Amino acid sequence: MQVITTHTNTDLDGLGAAVAAQKLYPEAILVFPGKLSRNVEEFLALHKDTLAIQNLKNLDINQIKRLIVVDTKAPRRLGKLGSIVDQDLEIHIYDHHPWAPGDLKGSFEMVDSVGATVTLLVEMIKDKNLSITPLEATIMIMGIYGDTGSLLFTNTTARDILAAAYLLEQGARLSVVADFLGRPMTEEQKSLLKDLVMSAEHHSVKGVKILLAKAQVDEFIVGLAPLTHTLAEIEHPDAIFTVVEMEDRVHIVGRGNVPQVNIK
Length: 264
Known about the structure:
Layout: E1 2-5, H1 12-24, E2 29-30, H2 38-51, E3 66-70, E4 90-95, E5 108-111, H3 117-127, H4 134-148, H5 158-169, H6 174-181, H7 187-199, E6 201-205, E7 208-217, H8 224-235, E8 239-246, E9 249-256
Parallel strand pairs: 1-2, 1-3, 3-4, 4-5, 7-8
Antiparallel strand pairs: 6-7, 8-9
């Protein structure tokens, strides 16, 4: 049995990358390991049946022979599926996050510094000339727009823009993207933003105004990148870094608005 999965608290990039992975692994079953972000949950309430997503509770995970993991490499973020990663199974990894201690190792690894994981998979879909429906293209472009702030964040690369252009050519609907990216912040995100605002420290390094904001939360909260962008709009620094401890890992997001600060 082949299974495609992503991280708990699945965001739009995790969803888009998982749907893209199904085009590359048509025999694989798509399952989510746990809680979904609110916009993903609302989107799937309308389209879950179309995507043929399986319930993890109905699977014998010990029968999995190949596990395709997208948008994460951390075993602890795979929920119940994290318990089988040390067994005799083939693991394929697609991710855009930097490597960290304890990350999974796969027999196949596609890990690169792009704005969204789905970009990596869309490039492969394009190279293989695989057909995708307008709905699939819309889900994939939501992942790119979600993780790059609609191509405005500094983590956006030319590859993300080219992938988005390709998806538009395949019928992706930006009106749907706007509907699901325009959701108001959750209470958890509002609380985290407040903590970041309260902790903000202003520094001047060689004339460059740098803002550093720190916080600690017990559970993973989706959306640190857009929260960092919002904080930058409030404070107007030349560069900003947010450092948040979530669960047992520290997440760092940086944004730079001047050439003296090169943030990739």
